[in-house]
Design brief:
The chain is mainly α and about 325 residues long. Helix content is about 30%, strand content about 5%. The strands form two sheets. The chain has a two-stranded antiparallel ribbon with strand order 1-2. It has a two-stranded antiparallel sheet with strand order 3-4.
């Protein structure tokens, strides 16, 4: 409930949320290109994806526009249908638009945290082609992650209705490790560089991402205190996620998890890093969707905050 206080007070979903969070939202968006506020749906209906409930054909989506403005055709109308919702709501473009020409390390009252939203797997998969994470000037980033021919469309890895990962399909290809559960997928390793610099070249790609995910939080905390002049703490389940750390213990306590206590002492560099930290946290399958892209953005965030990345390898 705390996380959704930014919804309308009468319980209706704002128009920009209604695209995905109502049973008729996506069909209306596909037909009209816009949405209006609608009552919250209790789960999705068949008509969210199916345009005919006799033949159960799906809506034909030929192209998807991402928040950055990039237009993508996956080559599969069904995957395009998935991408309409799994694209996030922000991008490098919107972060840059908000920051403008503000100096990197100066606090600005015009800044606020931009939340990419949840499960932006499509944006992760397409990397720099859609710029879902924040990309720093002068850096090169990975684009579309092809994965494998038998696993290059959404429904080839995820159940179309259950959305669960097809573990057996993963095990068929990644037969070098034992895969019996969802957790085992995190042991998959295809690249052998020690990206996180912890000396472990046997851990899965998820492990190579985990360390750079932990480091930015510490760097964000130190930077906020020493450069922005205000203590910050993060709560992954409470909007707006970053709060003033009133007692300086590095955690969001119950009395601090209040929207009125949202952190507001942002500098451009702090905002960029916080955005990427949130981005990587809200795509739990990022290691499979495009792990190299995520590590690149986390590495660059650390570097921008002045953290020591000398032991790490940027993909």
């Amino acid at each position: 409930e705390e996380a959704f206080r930014h919804w309308d007070e009468d319980g209706a979903v704002p128009g920009n949320c209604a695209k995905c969070h109502t049973d008729t939202g996506l069909p209306m968006f596909l037909a009209e290109g816009v949405n209006i506020s609608q009552p919250i749906a209790n789960g999705f209906q068949c008509t969210t994806c199916h345009n005919d409930l006799q033949e159960f054909t799906r809506y034909e989506v030929t192209e998807v526009t991402f928040p950055s403005g990039a237009k993508i055709d996956s080559g599969d109308p069904d995957s395009n249908l998935c991408l309409n919702c799994h694209q996030g709501r922000e991008s490098t473009v919107s972060v840059n638009r908000l920051i403008g020409d503000a100096p990197g390390d100066e606090v600005s009252d015009a800044l606020r945290f931009l939340n990419v939203h949840y499960f932006a797997a499509g944006a992760t998969r397409y990397g720099t082609e859609v710029k879902g994470a924040y990309e720093y000037d002068g850096k090169e980033y990975f684009g579309f992650f092809e994965h494998a021919r038998a696993a290059d469309q959404c429904a080839e890895c995820h159940g179309a209705h259950s959305l669960e990962v097809d573990i057996e399909a993963c095990a068929d290809c990644h037969d070098d490790i034992e895969i019996e559960s969802l957790e085992d997928l995190q042991n998959i390793r295809y690249y052998f560089d020690d990206w996180d610099g912890d000396g472990d070249t046997e851990e899965g790609i998820a492990g190579e991402i985990a360390t750079p995910q932990e480091m930015p939080y510490a760097a964000i905390h130190d930077y906020a205190t020493n450069t922005a002049g205000a203590a910050i703490a993060y709560d992954s389940h409470a909007y707006p996620y970053f709060f003033n750390d009133l007692n300086g213990n590095g955690e969001v306590d119950e009395d601090e998890a209040d929207r009125a206590n949202g952190f507001n002492t942002w500098t451009p560099n702090l905002l960029r890093a916080a955005y990427n930290y949130q981005y990587s946290s809200k795509d739990p399958g990022a290691f499979a969707h495009n792990g190299q892209y995520i590590v690149q953005t986390l590495f660059d965030s650390l570097e921008a905050l002045g953290a020591d990345v000398s032991a790490m390898i940027r993909p």
